[in-house]
Design brief:
Elements: H1 3-13, E1 18-22, H2 28-36, E2 41-44, H3 48-62, E3 66-71, H4 72-89, E4 93-99, H5 115-120, E5 125-128, H6 135-148, E6 152-158, H7 159-163, H8 182-194, E7 198-202, H9 209-222, E8 225-228, E9 235-237, H10 251-258, E10 263-267, E11 291-295, H11 299-309, H12 332-342, E12 347-351, H13 354-357, H14 360-363, E13 370-373, H15 383-393, E14 399-404, H16 405-408, H17 414-421, E15 425-431, H18 436-445, H19 450-455, H20 467-473, E16 478-481, H21 484-496, E17 501-506
Parallel strand pairs: 1-2, 1-3, 3-4, 4-6, 5-6, 7-8, 7-10, 10-11, 12-13, 12-14, 14-15, 15-17, 16-17
Antiparallel strand pairs: 9-13
Helix pairs in contact: 1-2, 1-6, 3-4, 3-15, 8-11, 9-11, 12-21
Length: 513
């Protein structure tokens, strides 16, 4: 067997059924093998950032890796932003990067680059296969690294390794069980039982139903306060699942949320830091006099902690009221209210819009059971790609993506893939003709006078984009709404009809800095 055959055979044997591709000449033998072996679904993407973002969305929802296939260093470079988000999300992902033939690199061809150095910035595991005899073993170990990290495992495959004969399929080792230190959990239980001023800060895999129920159980038994990480990779909510407030994004609000706690127990979440540095404000959001306790991120550790502190499990909370459908001019608040009123059971909600993201959590708290996928790494352009991957991972569930006019322009090619694959994704673009996030940041930095802020308006004005025309050009049916009633009607129709749809929700622009 040649190397390309063994790559595809090994991925298939590992249960990896989807590969998001934007290949070039160095990957043609791999493309040919994927085309010949339909067990692996080859999903073509028109930009590498779509491929990597879609693999992130797929891995978050499937819980198992998808693969990506990228072309040389420049192709990897185009996909780095969403690989960064996947790394921060802890998404299992096998990232295959084709490279020049081993003997060809010595001639420094135009597309040559240090692929391993680039991949190392976003990968937990990186390897280059240099002999065809090793390709089966290397693919198997990449799969294991992606699953057990979990995280991004990048394997660099020179083209001659793929076309040469002499490769053989390697077995995939069984995944190990999550383990935790029982004595450490028991020590933390003693803190929560005996100390005042405790906060249980939840994140990671504990943002699913079982973890949230365990956290709620602990809080009821001990009186500890509850808080969740700002941007969970996957947050199961609605339908009476205990709803935890998330850490706010603005640094002053985040500091206020963490202030006054003598003990903070991190259960699957990283200790929070400010997104950016601001003059005179701390980077570490946990007060220096707070005692920090880090519970194992394994969900079993939080379950054991709940068993130690609360003898009986508690049921899910009863459902809370859904918002009424608003009327009148369309605003960001109205968009959130409509989403909360109409969100269907089992939906996957992908949130990348700052404009809606501040309002959607409260508006959808009373919605039926759904999953929420967040922007984990802060790198813009994940919304529509992640929604694409989530739809492939969960073909029986509707996907609703909220993006902004600014972030949507980073990866609009996702719409083409959604149309090509017939994916059930409804994309809502909140168009306020502004980089609204920059308006807030300009004020937050605190070094601009009023005249400077007015002049800075040119940096946030992004008016003039026609998202309905853009979507139509990608093959996605699209509508535009500027009233609450119009948006509600269009969203209801889009959710009822299979396949991709886009709604451009025109909301008031940022009027002042």
């Amino acid at each position: 067997m040649n190397g390309a055959q063994v790559v595809v055979e090994t991925l298939g044997a590992a249960g990896i059924g989807v590969c998001f591709t934007n290949p070039g000449t160095s990957e043609m033998h791999l493309v040919a093998e994927m085309a010949a072996r339909p067990a692996i679904r080859n999903v073509l993407c028109l930009f590498e950032g779509v491929a990597t973002g879609a693999a992130d969305g797929y891995g978050r929802m499937a819980g198992t890796p998808a693969a990506t296939l990228l072309h040389l260093g420049p192709g990897l470079g185009n996909g780095l932003a969403n690989l960064h988000n996947a790394r921060r999300a802890g998404t299992p992902l096998v990232n295959l990067v084709g490279d020049h033939a081993t003997y060809h690199k010595a001639f420094d061809p135009p597309l040559d680059s240090d692929v391993e150095a680039m991949a190392g910035t976003v990968s937990a595991w990186v390897r280059r296969t240099t002999r065809v005899e090793d390709v089966g073993r290397d693919v198997a170990e990449a799969v294991v690294a992606a699953r057990t990290g979990p995280g991004v495992a990048t394997l660099v495959l020179p083209s001659d390794v793929c076309w040469s004969d002499g490769a053989s399929v390697a077995p995939i080792p069984a995944a190990g069980q999550d383990e935790f230190d029982a004595a450490e959990v028991e020590r933390i239980a003693k803190v929560l039982r005996e100390q005042d001023g405790c906060l249980l800060f939840v994140g990671g895999a504990n943002m699913r139903r079982a973890g949230l129920r365990a956290a709620s159980r602990i809080a009821r038994a001990t009186g500890a306060a509850l808080l969740a990480e700002k941007s969970p990779a996957r947050h199961e909510r609605g339908g009476g699942i205990p709803d935890l407030a998330r850490l706010p994004y603005p640094v002053d609000e985040a500091l206020a949320a963490l202030r006054g706690h003598r003990h903070v127990v991190f259960a699957g979440a990283r200790p929070p830091v400010a997104f950016f540095a601001y003059p005179g404000k701390p980077s570490d959001l946990v007060a220096p006099d707070t005692e920090v306790h880090e519970l194992s991120p394994a969900p079993a550790a939080l379950e054991y902690l709940a068993e130690l502190l609360a003898a009986e499990a508690v049921p899910d909370d009863g459902p809370s009221a859904r918002p009424s459908l608003p009327t009148g001019a369309l605003t960001a608040d109205a968009v959130a209210a409509v989403a909360g009123a109409l969100l269907p059971e089992g939906a996957v909600l992908v949130d990348e819009s700052m404009t809606s993201g501040q309002r959607l959590p409260a508006a959808t708290a009373g919605a039926p059971w759904h999953d929420w996928l967040s922007l984990t790494g802060g790198s813009i352009g994940m919304g529509t790609p992640v929604a694409t991957g989530a739809a492939l991972a969960c073909p029986d569930r509707p996907v609703l993506c909220f993006a902004a006019d600014g972030s949507a322009m980073y990866t609009p090619q996702s719409l083409w893939t959604q149309a090509r694959e017939g994916l059930d994704v409804t994309t809502v673009i909140l168009n306020n003709s502004s980089y609204a996030i920059l308006a807030g940041e300009l004020g937050r930095v605190g070094v601009f006078d009023d005249a400077d802020l007015v002049r800075a308006r040119e940096f946030i004005d992004i008016s003039g984009v026609d998202f309905v025309a853009l979507a139509a050009g990608m093959g996605v049916p699209a509508t535009r709404a500027d009233t609450a009633e119009g948006f509600a009607g269009q969203l209801r129709e889009a959710l009822a009809e299979p396949g991709p749809h886009l709604i451009e929700a025109v909301v008031p622009p940022v009027s002042a800095l």
